[in-house]
Design goal:
48% strand; 4-stranded antiparallel β-sheet; mainly beta; 7-stranded mixed β-sheet
C-alpha cells in the first residue's frame, strides 16, 4: 500500500519561501508520476503542480507558474515543492499525490481526479 507523508509547511509572511517535502513508500513509487494539490477552507482541492516519473517534465497551475517549482529524487522516493514569492491566497493545506496509472514516459497528471493516493497534508499559512 502506497503511503505519502508531507512535511515542511508553516506560517510565513507574504513574499517568503517554503519548501515542502513528500516521502513516498510502499511499492515502486519512483515509477509513477506525482504531484501536489491544495485545499483552502471552503474550497475544493485544486491541482498545483506535477512531475513525470523521471523528473523530466513538469506542469503547473496558472496561479503558481513562475513562483513554485516541483522536483523529485527517485533515489530517496521523495517529491518536493519549492514555493517562492508566497501570497496570502496560497494559504491552504497542501497534499502530495501519486498517480499509479502509466500513461507514457512524460505523463504529468493535471487534475485532482487523476491521482490514486494522497497524503494527510501539511498546512501553509501566508499572512500579509
Amino acid at each position: 500500500q502506497v503511503q505519502l507523508v508531507e512535511s515542511g509547511g508553516g506560517s510565513v509572511q507574504a513574499g517568503d519561501s517554503l519548501r515542502l517535502s513528500c516521502a513516498a513508500s510502499g511499492g515502486a513509487v519512483s515509477s509513477f508520476a506525482m504531484g501536489w494539490a491544495r485545499q483552502a477552507p471552503g474550497q475544493e482541492r485544486e491541482f498545483v503542480a506535477s512531475i513525470n516519473w523521471r523528473g523530466e517534465r513538469t506542469a503547473y497551475a496558472d496561479s503558481v507558474e513562475g513562483r513554485f517549482t516541483i522536483s523529485r529524487d527517485n533515489a530517496k522516493n521523495s517529491v518536493y515543492l519549492q514555493m517562492d514569492g508566497l501570497k496570502p491566497e496560497d494559504t491552504a493545506i497542501y497534499y502530495c499525490g501519486l498517480d499509479k496509472t502509466y500513461s507514457g514516459p512524460y505523463y504529468t497528471p493535471r487534475t485532482v481526479a487523476d491521482y490514486d493516493y494522497w497524503g494527510q497534508g501539511t498546512q501553509v499559512t501566508v499572512s500579509s
